[in-house]
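This follows on from our talk about sequence and fold. Go ahead and set the record down below:
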Amino acid sequence: MEEMSSNIAKSSSRRPNWTEREKLVLVEAVRLRDDRLFGKMRGPGGIKNSKVKEQAWEEVAKAVNAVSETVQRSTEEARKQYANIKQRAKEKSDAMRRPSTGGGPKPPSPTPVELEMLNSMEDRPTLCGLSSGYDTEEVILGIIPSTCAFTNNEENCTENFENTSQTLYATSVQPVTYPTGSSSTVTKRRKTMEDEEILTLRAEREKYLEEVKKLKEESDYYKVKTMYLKMKMSQMKKVAEQ
């Protein structure tokens, strides 16, 4: 009986889950204070920098509480929730970057909140692409948001994707050197290997272009959904102010 009472007490004191609106405001508030929270700060000591970051997190929590309909969130809760969203977004991004081995379920796509998180991390060094060849994460986080913005038309968006794909393909494919020989057997074998290599590269390129197309469609969908949620938030804010 005492154990049951203890469980009821614990469940009643549990904090309400974060709403999608709170999460969106959290990510946006952190993005606006990115330099103070994550940038390199110059100052006489670490204590001053720590105070600057703590003040920034207090502002983030205040922004979240301004739209919260349940409870008031503390700075510690804001920190933990942001870290959780960031981790889930990164995991989904990594899953989408891994080459498909056939079979198994399709990796889940980022939610609108997680997509906003990835977009806010776009310019950070941890998510930058490689200087040579290509990194799929750069394709997801860099190419899609910039070339598929709603201000561009569909023709320009398609052209940018094709140009980018051709550039990545050209930089990632290196010439293959095979051992030379004087006999016709070695020459035929080398020719066969070259033909097979070309066919393989063509198949990989087609697969890559198809993946880029799918990612573009998913990005456009979540971009629209994010804009819709922001519009609803703005409308609700206006109603609350009246």
In short: The chain has two domains: 18-95+109-125, 128-173+199-228. The longest helix spans residues 184-241. The two ends are 50 Å apart (CA to CA).
